[in-house]
Amino acid sequence: MRNLVRLAFWSGIALAGTLLTTAAKAPPVAAQAPAQAPAQAPYFEVDPFWPKPLPNHWVTGSTVGLSVDDQDNVWTIHRPNTVDANFKAADIKASEAKDDEVQPGAEGVAAPSTDMIGACCKVAPPVLVYDRAGNLVRSWGGPGPGYDWPDSNHGITVDGKGNVWLAGNGRNDTQVLKFTREGKFLLQVGKHGVHNGSNDTQNFWQPTKIFHEPSANEVYIADGYGNRRVIVLDADSGEYRRHWGAYGARPDDAKMPPYNPKSPPSKQFSTMHCAIVSHDGFVYACDRVNDRIQVFKKDGTFVKEAFIDPKTYRSGSVWDMTFSRDPDQTYIYQANGVDEKVNILLRSTLEVLTSFGDGGRQPGQFFGVHNLATDSQGNLYTAETYTGARVQRFLFKGVRPVTKREQGVPWPQGAR
Domain residues for 257? Predict the structure, then answer.
């Protein structure tokens, strides 16, 4: 047996030598790198039947906030004052209308004081809540006693205790608000109309979005259109904890030049539009007009940055972000409201793997895609500002190899 093994061993060596000799006489062949498997990414299809039509002839304005609670209810907030007059005839008395089309051909004839211009439509309350099936299950919001409702609504977040946080980006919106699910007022942090710059620990200036981090029971606030920072508060008391600017430095309110992708990266944030915290303790900040994501530790220590669609001007490319729902939060979904698409990033590298969407009014298209959120099943929700004025659902269809960098409209497979 031992001799047989030896024979096989040496026979193999002899064969190898023969092959090497043959290869030496043959013409050289270019080395081929091993084929790499294509990157994997989540895929979605738009659900054109979600949500269901609103009751009461209600319509919505610019939809500027989106959150999913622990029961998969979808919360939105819109701006009632952005609804066009031609879209709210049931809210305007004919006797008080100021346009020339109120009483065509009847000059000098006064309309009855109680008559409305028409039967459709009415502006919905600012906060609207949908269940999984797309039914409207709750609505509330607006000015009330004890608090200053924002002049321009911006952002809604349901925290881990079921409370609802709101912000506003009006010129005098320097406060954030906290309510119960039912709309009962709980807390206001900041005094409306008062701000003292990006290092003010008592007030904000045009804050945009709030994120609740449950392990420390803190809220991270992107602050904002006026200020240039991420600021952290205790989620129960609203007490100040810490804040930082770009690269983790103390923010500076000096005037900065317009974004230019050929210039050195800005040392300040420009429209701080979101700050979200991963399970493993990193803060991902939307530096919207600077076309970048900056990553920090929870204490504000800078980790890295990545530029996304860096030739995007005007309103910038990084409008909002949310994590995929797998335990490792492998992916980041990121909204670009100028290019009207949702990018899918690998969280570990911030590489854009693929994207979906396009500009337009049909399901799966966008006009001002502004906010993103996911539910427990991995489905993705989008909210649109400007006259996009709606929320859409995209059904999670699993993770598969990336075949296109730009997918276009994620229309349901097999649909005509």
Answer: 38-101+111-401
